């Protein structure tokens, strides 16, 4: 693949175009949301409760809630700008299964009031945050998912025994240059950390543009 085929910069809010009504757009969400929602529609059971952490603009949440009407989709983020955009997308979409976007920092106690989740979903966050974010995500997902539930994580990862592709190596370098705590994560490292938190070894689904959907199940 030539470097121009997948110019995938880290997504930042300054890259987003504010619209009049508060909805923001993310070029990367625009590129990947259809593929992600198609994959979720294939692998999810017919109905359930899904909490999305680090939901960003809200473009995944709206498309997924539209496509999966029997799923209650709870979008969250810790960033006030993201929450403004999430609320604007939700207000415009008016989907009964798309729940009120709420503040949630992955590192803090999750304000779920005893609610048990079927799925926790996180897209494009583990590379653009410190590794402690992955740790916190595993701890809280294991705590709040029902037995047999899933933590589903989308993004770029380095797989064991697979030659890393050039665009992901460059992406990793860009991330580390922007913040040394960031970087494309090694699947082995994530798996080790997840196992230590009582999650199971993930299934790995290849996605377009050298991304993956990882599914860490909880024990039954
Ligand atoms: C690259 S954006 C991805 C947004 C969206 N999931 C997507 O795929 O387009 C990263 C998002 O992670 C959120 N984020 C980063 N660290 C977080 C944390 N500790 N808790 C909750 N959200 C976090 C940011 O606010 C931002 O919305």
What are the defining features of this structure?
220 residues; alpha/beta; Rossmann fold; two-stranded parallel sheet; 6 helices; globular; disordered N terminus
Description:
With 220 residues, the protein is of the alpha/beta class. It is globular. The termini are far apart. Strand 2, helix 3 and strand 3 (102-103) form a beta-alpha-beta unit. A seven-stranded mixed sheet has the order 3-2-1-4-5-9-8, with helices on both faces. The protein has a two-stranded parallel sheet with strand order 6-7. 38% of the residues are buried. It has one domain (20-217): Vaccinia Virus protein VP39 (Rossmann fold). Helix 1 (27-43) runs parallel beside helix 2. It has helices at 27-43, 59-67, 80-93, 131-144, 166-178, 187-196; strands spanning 48-53, 71-77, 102-103, 117-123, 145-155, 157-158, 185-186, 203-207, 211-217. Mean pLDDT is 92; it is low at 1-10. It contains six helices and nine strands; from the N terminus they run αβαβαββαββαβαββ. Residues 11, 26, 28-29, 53-56, 77-79, 82, 105-107, 123-125, 128-129, 133 line the site of S-adenosylmethionine.
């Amino acid at each position: 693949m030539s470097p121009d085929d997948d110019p995938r910069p880290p997504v930042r809010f300054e890259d987003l175009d504010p619209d009049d009504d508060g909805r923001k757009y993310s070029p990367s969400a625009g590129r990947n949301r259809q593929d992600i929602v198609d994959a979720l529609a294939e692998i999810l059971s017919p109905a359930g409760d899904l909490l999305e952490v680090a939901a960003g603009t809200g473009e995944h949440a709206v498309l997924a809630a539209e496509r999966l009407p029997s799923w209650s989709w709870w979008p969250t983020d810790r960033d006030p700008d993201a929450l403004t955009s999430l609320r604007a997308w939700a207000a415009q979409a008016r989907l009964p299964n798309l729940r009120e976007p709420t503040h949630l920092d992955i590192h803090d106690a999750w304000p779920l009031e005893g609610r048990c989740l079927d799925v926790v979903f996180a897209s494009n966050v583990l590379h653009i945050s410190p590794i402690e974010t992955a740790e916190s995500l595993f701890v809280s997902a294991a705590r709040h998912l029902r037995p047999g539930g899933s933590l589903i994580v989308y993004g770029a990862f380095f797989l064991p025994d697979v030659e890393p592709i050039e665009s992901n190596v460059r992406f990793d370098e860009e991330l580390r240059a922007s913040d040394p705590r960031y970087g494309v994560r090694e699947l082995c490292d994530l798996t080790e950390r997840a196992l230590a938190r009582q999650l199971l070894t993930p299934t790995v689904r290849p996605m377009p543009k050298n991304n993956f959907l990882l599914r860490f199940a909880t024990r039954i």
